Amino acid sequence: MRVDICPREDYATQAALLEAFAQLGAFPEDEFDMEVPLPTGLLRFRMGIDIFTVFVDAWDIDLEGSDELVKRVLAAMADAC
């Protein structure tokens, strides 16, 4: 499943996304500062044995992973708002 998270300039939603990752115990596979704004590129995260990606370009931020995982991240983001 792939979902559009927010426009690149939406720092509040990016912060909610990072908060959801922390709440769910997700961590990045590569070393980078998990802060807003997210760095441009393809970011891979792991939560247990599941892997999901966050794609950040000049315009948007997208999340892709298994249906269950993406739904859990979106639910955690909704709880943070």
Features:
five-stranded antiparallel β-sheet, single chain, 81 residues, alpha+beta
Secondary structure tally, helices: 2
Morphology call: globular
Number of extended strands: 5
Instruction: Could you tell me the CATH topology label.
Output: TATA-Binding Protein
Q: How many domains is the backbone divided into?
A: 1
Brief account:
Helix content is 35%, strand content 33%.
Descriptive account of the structure:
The structure is a single chain. This protein is of the alpha+beta class and 81 residues long. The protein has helices spanning 11-24, 67-80, and strands at 2-7, 27-28, 41-47, 50-56, 60-64. Helix 1 (11-24) packs across helix 2 (67-80). It has one domain (2-80): TATA-Binding Protein (2-Layer Sandwich).
List the helices and strands and how they pair.
Elements lengths: L1 E6 L3 H14 L2 E2 L12 E7 L2 E7 L3 E5 L2 H14 L1
